[in-house]
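To whoever picks this up:

The nightly regression suite flagged PLATZ transcription factor family protein as changed. Nothing in the input moved, so I suspect the structure step. Input below, exactly as stored in the fixture:
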Amino acid sequence: MDLPWVESLIQAKFYVTCQCGWKDSTYYCIQYLDLPFCEVCKTNKHSGHNVLQVCLSSEAEEESKETEKESQSEL
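Regenerated output under the current build:
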């Protein structure tokens, strides 16, 4: 099975502000193999495309929150 988008998906950076500046990037279009994007861009630019949504697990969210707390306490 040929899945050329998998490598690009693995290397993509999610949960950063989308290029449009509105929301975090949690979607990925496997047709364009471009940068991740937000739900606003999904509706406006990728309607009808094969789109995946990346979600954080609750464990990853907890680790992220803990890291953020540590960073703030160091300031």
